[in-house]
TrEMBL record, chains A, B:
DNA-binding region(s) from the entry: 51-70
PANTHER family: HTH-TYPE TRANSCRIPTIONAL REGULATOR RUTR, REGULATORY PROTEIN
Native source species: Paenactinomyces guangxiensis
Designated name of the protein: TetR/AcrR family transcriptional regulator
Entry-linked InterPro entries: Homeodomain-like_sf, HTH-type_TetR-like_transc_reg, HTH_TetR, Tet_transcr_reg_TetR-rel_C_sf
GO biological process terms held by the UniProt record: regulation of DNA-templated transcription
Every HTH tetR-type domain range: 28-88
Domain of life where this protein originates: Bacteria
One GO molecular-function entry: DNA binding
Length: 228, 228
DNA sequence: GATATAAGTGAGTAATCACTCACTTACCAA
DNA sequence: TTGGTAAGTGAGTGATTACTCACTTATATC
């Protein structure tokens, strides 16, 4: 799937499920309520575990109203998920990270800033991200879309930046760029998981200090004096 | 929840759902087939997305047979999940990692060995782990059980080992032990996720080489010459 | 070989599911 | 004010769901 294929795919799915994707649209109050309720309930119970009647009740709307706007339950899911994926993969969301890395500060501080930025970004969109991650495990079309779209539009940009930082001597040159990229992402995601699942054991300090330590480990490693 | 509370909890759930937990039991061939089919289908479609009729069909068994042995659909889920959690948190599974760390080898090699060991362990039990992780998001009792059990019985052991390695000079002493533990886990999980979701972009080399690079990043960091 | 106990099943059942349809209500432009 | 269109709904529908029960079959012990 190339970038153009992605756009085609979005249009195709949008047609198939009569999605508006929130672009041209002026949404009704009730439509907003439905989307709000759906995010809450899908995140809490998963797609299969949620019922349209429950979503309707929480939104204060007749069940039929949901089907008026989104045709099927899966149409409702995709109306939530596809714009979110498109947003994650849009240029500006990558660009804001690049901007931070280009600021006039010590490299160490820039690394902390960019990690904090991404952590906050994920935290504020946590429910939607949870839905996307979980449902991508069970809906192959979704998984494939994320794979190809994120892989083809986000990674190359980040990869380029890393190569530049390697050339500038900020990052070591004896490891491939994808390993360095994966390491940064791993440490950030690992921190978020730890904070959510084992906060008392694995994330005991203030967020600011935790991120500072993440940057420290990332740049210098965990090895002690013996390894030198 | 203390360790004794955990045992109580297991017995309580076992009573509530009539679980045998595979300890005293001689399982029938059909029971094995049911468990096999359930693992496959729960992993593929999620708990809510799976139907008992489908599980029965795949196992080559009448639907009523499932309810004969496991009383409810959730009873079947717990029969899969609870022994797996108990196993993960059992002493020997932690001990095998500690054994590796105590071998008479350079520290760098021991780190590689232990990462490889855990990666293989997760890979061979991937379906069950997937079920546990996903369903713990939606069943609070499960989440709590994992949290307290793993947190209270696995982390302290690992934490102790890390402090010892810090004292020996193999790991740096200027960061708290939980940050070092979290870093190792993050890098391993990050690698597994990358291998599963973005293999072409984020896990391009042979497993052996990837793990060697993970150990390298972990011990020495990603920072370049500028940072020295 | 008789008997007791457990394993296994076919044919249900009530409840819930996603979804439809005929209909009413709200909105807006001419 | 009117007329056309979209928003919204109450009352359904057939299909599927987890689960039950009366019953048969297999197994093990004496």
């Amino acid at each position: 799937m190339t970038e153009k294929d992605w756009e085609k795919w979005v249009r195709m799915i949008a047609d198939e499920y009569d999605l508006d994707l929130g672009k041209t649209n002026k949404e009704t109050l009730k439509q907003k309520k439905i989307l709000e309720a759906a995010i809450h309930i899908f995140a809490e119970k998963g797609f299969s575990g949620s019922s349209t009647s429950e979503i309707a009740e929480r939104a204060g709307v007749a069940e039929a109203t949901i089907f008026k706007h989104y045709r099927t339950k899966k149409g409702l899911l995709l109306r939530l998920v596809i714009p979110a994926i498109a947003k994650v993969a849009s240029p500006w969301i990558t660009r804001s990270a690049l901007k931070i890395l280009e600021q006039d500060k010590p490299f160490r501080e820039r690394v902390e800033d960019v990690i904090l930025d991404r952590v906050l970004l994920i935290e504020t969109n946590w429910k939607k991200i949870k839905i996307i991650l979980v449902e991508s495990l069970f809906h192959p079309e979704l998984r494939e879309a994320i794979q190809t779209h994120v892989a083809k539009s986000v990674f190359p940009v980040m990869s380029e930046k890393i190569k530049q930082l390697q050339a500038e001597g900020e990052l070591r040159r004896d490891l491939p760029d994808y390993v360095l990229l994966r390491s940064v992402i791993s440490m950030a995601i690992g921190y978020l998981l730890a904070r959510n699942v084992f906060p008392e054991q694995l994330a005991q300090s203030e967020e600011k200090d935790e991120i500072s330590m993440i940057a420290e480990v990332l740049l210098k490693g965990v090895g002690g004096s013996h390894g030198d």
